[in-house]
């Protein structure tokens, strides 16, 4: 239950990432990404330094998976999202992002041998369908008129990047301390993103990152999505696996609409409300069925164990009684034989 709460909070924080990212979208994409991880590095440094120093041999030995986690989840996922928004519509980006659970499930079934039951598959379909319904406001015209361009291709890269990150978390994240590994990954992400952001500054000049709205937006991105959400997401994936965890990403459109209503003054339609309910229903089906099925299996195991124990107990009792009768009979025969011998 705690893992699902972590994943729910992560979805809320990520929806804030979309809203804030849209508000400061006049900044270059890799500039946003760089200052985001730079601020996160400053936040994590005091609490992660001791772990990073203590587990240095582990980081050196497991540098390949650590580098993979850095490049996928910390450096390039959001960089790809910000870059794609320079070329394609937010509708295209949101619909493609809602495909992450499906792609994650496919990759998890192929590489992690995870299994989903029938009702769980239905939950995935409902959540994805509800997310698309919310984004398109129930208009088939919007879906039909989507056209792929370089931004869509970049967004496909973002989807695959997050899927790879979730699978790497499942395989390798338990090897590393939480804060120490996050500090190392953030430091490496800064090294990777700085040269790319510098190219943006050389071409277009240094952006106005110190304007109040830009600074506040970057502070949010650096603290909440980059640190808090990442820690909660990793804990959730470790508990329930990448397939079920990724379904919570379908709640992003729902929370984004609510945030847009509260902070941007946008209106909500009945179609969006219905789509949100479908998304939530799909998430509940996907997350609860496995637990319920496991409980039923445990119940069945307990019943079978009880029946076997009772049967074995009765068998042992009957066997003991049989042995007792045989022994008594033998003693009786032995007594008669002794009495006869004494007479002789």
Would you kindly provide a brief summary of this structure?
This is Permease of the drug/metabolite transporter (DMT) superfamily. The protein has 344 residues and is mainly α.
Report on the structure:
It is a single chain. The protein has 344 residues and is mainly α. The protein has one domain (2-291). The protein is 85% helix and 0% strand. The protein is built from 14 helices and no strands. It is globular and about 50 Å long. The termini are far apart. The model is unreliable at 289-344 (pLDDT under 50). Its main location: membrane.
Question: Helical percent range?
Answer: over 70%
Q: List the uncertain runs.
A: 289-344
Question: What sort of overall outline do the alpha carbons produce when their principal axes are compared?
Answer: globular
What proportion of the residues form beta strands (DSSP E)? Answer: under 5%
Instruction: Briefly note the structural class of the backbone.
Output: mainly alpha
| Whole-number mean pLDDT | 77
Q: Tally the helices: what do you get?
A: 14
Calculate the terminal CA-CA distance, rounded to whole Å. Answer: 84 Å
**Helix and strand succession?**
HHHHHHHHHHHHHH
Number of strands: 0
What is the number of domains? 1
- Using only C-alpha atoms, the radius of gyration works out to 30 Å
Biggest β-sheet strands, sense, barrel = none
Keywords: Cell membrane, Membrane, Transmembrane, Transmembrane helix
Subcellular location: Cell membrane
Family: Belongs to the EamA transporter family.
Pfam families: EamA
